[in-house]
Write a structure and sequence with these properties.
Elements: H1 2-90, E1 112-115, H2 121-134, E2 146-152, E3 157-161, H3 174-183, E4 190-197, H4 208-216, E5 223-228, E6 246-251, H5 252-255
Parallel strand pairs: 4-5
Antiparallel strand pairs: 1-6, 2-3, 2-4, 5-6
The structure holds zinc ion.
Length: about 260
Amino acid sequence: MTEKRKLLQRYMRNLNDLQDELKRKELENKMKELEMLQVKLARRQEQSGTKCAGGKIKDLRQKKLRKVLGKYMMTLEGFLCELARREARLSGDKGRVSESENLPHPQMLEEYTVAFCAVGEDGRELLEAALSARRCAYAPYSNFKVGAAFRAKCGRIYTGCNIENVAFTPGNCAERCALAKGISEGEKKYTAGAVVAYHPDGFTTPCGVCRQFILEFVQKDIPIYIAKAPPPEQEDCIPAIQDDDEVLVTSAYHLLPYSFNSFE
Ligand SMILES: [Zn+2]
């Protein structure tokens, strides 16, 4: 009897062990399943997240592109307007007001200010050429940009901008830049000039060195047109001098009446 009981006890123990083993295995399997499910879930979340982020990036890019395109279109429209305005002038349409015939002739060495629209066609053309050249100014140190234009005796316009230098002295002014371009191509005489820069307090006239330099290449007094460029906050806009903008019409003589003339 004792033997039998012992056998039964061992059997029961084995059975318990077996059940425990089965339960353990089942638990392990369930754990594995759970892990797999968690990995799957994480992957799906990641994919859906990437999808969302991708969509947002695409939207942002499109928005940015739309903005850039809009800006380009505005610039293009502005250029077309400005082009039409200049073409109309070249073909004889003198614009809204043209009273240049009634104004004192600048070659009479008189200095005066006048609205841009009332400046003669040649002067307006020079000022616009100077304003365009100003866009190329290299002025990283002062950020003071200047554009100049001079009409050679043959009628051709030479433009220039100021070019600064880290060592300061090697820098060059817009006026001398424009004249040097013409002189280097054989143009030694000039009939008019223009200077455009922006200073909140008034007109920017040529520096002393440039005044002396200009007088070297004019047979007689010549008109020098000075206008203000649009303020820095409008630099992204189309460069244009408005009809109402004031222009100083001075002359080479007025700028430097006591120039150095001879060393003999
Ligand atoms: Zn100068």
